[in-house]
Amino acid sequence: MSGQTMLLVNASVLPAVYSRVLEAKQLLSTGGAKTAAQAAQMAGISRGAFYKYKDHVFAYNRQTAGRVVTLNALLQDNPGILSALIGALSEAGANILTLNQNIPAGGTAAVSVSIRTDDLESDVQQMVAGLAALKGVLSIQEVAGQ
Description:
single chain; alpha+beta; 2 domains; four-stranded antiparallel β-sheet; 5 helices; 4 strands
């Protein structure tokens, strides 16, 4: 997130739309709403407002306030490669927060993984070097950290 300033602000001083976006996100994550439109309606905001802010408003949780790192990897499109990557992250003590794999094309698949680093056995650079050595990992790099 280079070039961006992150703030921790008490919700009571912000417009209500931000709290309502968090409410809609919570409804989606817990199954209280099946679609973004339904979640937005239940939270009392427009679908447009939800989409405008959903990727920029997050609830603060002391338990998840550790450093978050996003890794981008290019993997061979072979069975077990992603599983091996996930296993290696787990063994390193990383807590996977999100994982997104694009549809493979040309024999490779792009993967983005966000992890919390509170319990890492080594530093991030050493972990990334170990992941790069895994069979089928064509490239991997840290792209963002908080």
